[in-house]
Amino acid sequence: MALKRKNKVSASFSMSSMTDIVFLLLIFFMLTSTLVTTNALDLVLPKSNAQTVKKQRVSVSINENFEYFIDKETVELKYLEAQLMEKMTGQDEQVVILRVDKSVPVEYAVEVMDIAYRNKFKIVLATQQKR
Fold it and tell me: Minimal CA–CA distance to 122: which of 91, 83, 80?
């Protein structure tokens, strides 16, 4: 009596599962790379263990020469509040990212915090990650 094997091993390989994994990895890295915040100016920020901000709305920077910037545009202090109000109109979450060089006295940062407080903006102080 001749018995035949019913389970035959197939020599073909399906690439569909491999392409699915590669596609999912591609989507993952594309999404995580957009969440990285970059410094608009070359500032030496203070260090802390705080987490990074996921979405950056408006960035106010103060460099070592005590110059104010909104994103990458230079702004005088007397026009800072008006320009911040203009940038914040129409945004659902009004958040200001404050980037201050660590050599700048705290009074300069407090001026920007006062503007944010008067206009009820949320303010986040940016720092570098401790190593």
Answer: 91
- Contact between residue 103 and residue 65 where contact means Cβ atoms under 8 Å apart: no
pLDDT digits (tens, 9 = 90+) for 52-109: 545 557 888 999 898 999 888 899 988 988 988 888 887 778 888 888 888 888 898 8
Q: What's the Cα-to-Cα distance from 53 to each of 10, 19, 98, rounded to whole Å? A: 51, 33, 12
**Can you list the domains of the chain with their CATH numbers?**
47-129 (3.30.420.270)
Task: Answer for the pair 44, 127: CB distance below 8 angstroms, yes or no.
Answer: no
Q: How far apart are CA 119 and CA 8, in angstroms?
A: 74
Which of these, 103, 40, 111, lies nearest to 77 by C-alpha position?
Answer: 111
pTM, two decimals, is: 0.55
Quote the CA–CA distance of 79 and 63 in Å, as a whole number: 17
The answer to whether residues 49 and 88 touch, using CB atoms and an 8 Å cutoff, is: no
